[in-house]
Design a protein that fits this description.
255 residues; alpha/beta; 4 helices; 5-stranded mixed β-sheet; Ferric Hydroxamate Uptake Protein, Chain A, domain 1
Length: 255
């Protein structure tokens, strides 16, 4: 007896990939890849762009190095890219940078800031975001162990905040300082410019322009980096508007 294999008739198009399906598949795959890349960049705190690294000593009196590194690195990795470092406590604490070493006996150590905020975590745990200013300063800590906020990275922290989160900003000005107020508002991307005495919503960063003796200082209106700041400019609004580098590398400007 002769057996024949039954022929299975397939509906037209089944089991056969049409050319028009391939672009759709590729587009879907591309969308998935882009979504994963985007999520990875957000999770890493990076993405495109660069961060700036400053290394100074004695409260910014001496500038030792200025460099740039890719965003997405940790602050420790960024520092290691531009300088020779020595660490302790499993790589979480910076002991020395380019041979300048901290000393408990001499009460000198390395401290670091992100966009003017004193960081609340190990440099091995902070992930750099585009535009961040990572500032290391070697100083005597007998005067003060902590400096929650310094002015030397101005116009930070108004532009990039902390840990990738930026607050809205407002400029408050004394009589006669409206012109400087609007110039500085453009510089820090403020959403509000108002005369002194105006009520403002809570939670915004404030740049306060006053008349009087020359002084520029800042404070955190809270207990954590990233909390709202109050940045006071007295007797120097026009100078700061003309030259934002006036306070570069300074903890404050008090005369």
């Amino acid at each position: 007896m002769h057996w024949t294999t039954p022929r299975v008739t397939r509906p037209r198009g089944v089991g056969r990939r049409r050319p028009v399906e391939r672009p759709a598949v590729k587009l879907r795959l591309a969308a998935v890849v882009l979504a994963v890349a985007s999520l990875t960049a957000c999770a890493n705190g990076g993405g495109h762009g660069t961060a700036t690294i400053w290394i100074t000593r004695d409260r910014g009196s001496h500038v030792l190095l200025v460099g740039h590194v890719p965003a997405g690195l940790t602050a420790m990795q960024g520092l290691d890219r531009v300088a020779d470092i020595k660490t302790r406590y499993a790589g979480r604490y910076v002991q020395a940078i380019d041979g300048v070493e901290g000393s408990l006996t001499a009460r000198h150590d390395w401290f670091y800031f992100i966009n003017g905020y004193e960081s609340d975590r190990s440099a091995a745990e902070y992930r750099l975001h585009p535009g961040d200013v990572e500032w290391w300063d070697f100083r005597d800590w007998r005067r003060s162990m902590t400096e929650p906020l310094v002015v030397g990275a101005f116009p930070e922290p108004f532009l990039h905040g902390y840990n990738g989160r930026r607050r809205s900003s407002a400029v408050v000005y004394a009589p006669g300082l409206a012109k400087s107020a609007h110039r500085l508002a453009r510089m820090i991307h403020a959403v509000t410019v108002v005369p002194s005495g105006t009520n403002l919503m809570k939670g915004v960063n404030l740049l306060v322009l006053e008349r009087g003796r020359t002084a520029i200082w800042a404070q955190v209106m809270g207990s954590h980096p990233g909390d709202p700041v109050r940045f006071v400019v007295s007797g120097a609004a026009s100078k700061l508007a003309a030259n934002p580098g006036l306070v570069r590398y300074r903890y404050d400007l008090l005369r």
